[in-house]
């Protein structure tokens, strides 16, 4: 279809007032191309096939119009979103919650494998408006009768090509066949392979086809790095960076107006010259803040996307994405506030594990790699403070008025009968007591198990299928307290462990299923914090209680793991799930 010019603002679209209010608070101002084209079509009730990459703003492209058509008084699933992975499920659910913040009593529920089924049954019974989830878990609830789609208005297939690649496409069709015939369908995919096109032809009614390309690029004068949020709180991480990094002026981006004030206050309390910049500030105060930043009387500004539009301050040497942006266009605009007039700039991005998909999208859209960074350690911070302290002392030694103080301190030392060195130490303590050289900073981030090449999306299939296992990894066999009698399949364990541990699936080795338990090979050196976390992960209604096989005190300790293929089918008691052909459904994520 022909591409119309994008609207000037979201207010040009017929979105519900509550939705417009929410996106204004978030900082959205102008629709992206996919949003400009999809929103009117979905508001009009048409089916849509959208071809767009992750990071182009497609979540808002379907969420905003479908929420505008929602009936908040009806406590039944009205929108169903199918996603290929747990991480995308959580991202989409969070986006719906943010956009619907002003809809009365709105409820969205993420459904994915590896989570306790009971935790999902209770909110379904109470009633939710939007359900977002992976195909396997959606099918579980439809079979149980716990997910009633009788009042469903719309279905979204998000990243359909990924669901095809992961073996979900038949499940997707099965779910579509269990939805009401008169429902709206929106299908989004980066590519449109034959199988995806077949789904569209079969299940969509005269869809409007929309195709956009991401063309964003960044300037080469900006060094880009990311920190994977882990162990240390983001505020403490930012503080460490401020302590050690040499910067002239810094712009810190957050998502909401309230967050600008809260973070600026916290940084000021830690001794930094900092101020917020958001859309609620009057023009005079905004101009005053920008002028202070330009003149050097202000070093750090915490801003929203909208408030920072058009900001041109040459001395901004660093941009920190404290909250990851919702799309790649916003990221490019943010980091473009540094590296101005040919100067070097640095951009740092804080990324939670479930946000790694957006990081990949940013790399793809900007066509530049974003390298991981290590947080400064407590010793780094201490060394930097000591170095600054010594610099202050060296500068003070150049002061011509020192003679008077030398006489005063010598007199004090005689009166108190203490060495002059102790007097100097007391003065040093007085000088640094407001900002101690040795401070009790939080513990360092835990070292995670090997992740291999940075690719967060797990290959949800039995271990050993597809990619070869790494040859340079030492493996340890772990026992988990869920087996065939509980309905577990290899895909359940792969999906749960890959998502919860942040492991690429080729780092999940052989899986052997027994009646009452299973074993799985994982890389050696798993941090204790991660092992404790995996012990409490739920799969098929049971806690994994993960322990190294043969560990004293563990159930079945000393019992050797019996050989068997990862894709084993149920067999006799005490044997690995059978040999021979793998069941196709066992290769998919729950």
From TrEMBL:
Domain annotation Helicase ATP-binding: ranges: 39-210
Keywords: ATP-binding, Cytoplasm, Helicase, Hydrolase, Nucleotide-binding, RNA-binding, Stress response
Composition bias type Basic residues, residue spans: 570-590
Compartments it resides in: Cytoplasm
GO biological process assignments: cellular response to cold; ribosomal large subunit assembly; RNA catabolic process
Limits of the DEAD-box RNA helicase Q domain: 8-36
Catalytic reaction(s) noted: ATP + H2O = ADP + phosphate + H(+)
PROSITE patterns: DEAD_ATP_HELICASE, HELICASE_ATP_BIND_1, HELICASE_CTER, Q_MOTIF
Biased composition (Basic and acidic residues): 451-460
GO CC list: cytosol; ribosome
Annotated region described as Disordered, given as residue ranges: 440-472, 547-590
GO molecular function: ATP binding; ATP hydrolysis activity; RNA helicase activity; RNA strand annealing activity
Segments of skewed composition (Low complexity): 557-569
Main location: cytoplasm
EC number of the protein: 3.6.4.13
Matching HAMAP family: DEAD_helicase_DeaD (MF_00964)
PANTHER family in UniProt: ATP-DEPENDENT RNA HELICASE DEAD, DEAD-BOX ATP-DEPENDENT RNA HELICASE 47, MITOCHONDRIAL
Protein name: ATP-dependent RNA helicase DeaD
Taxonomic source organism: Thioalbus denitrificans
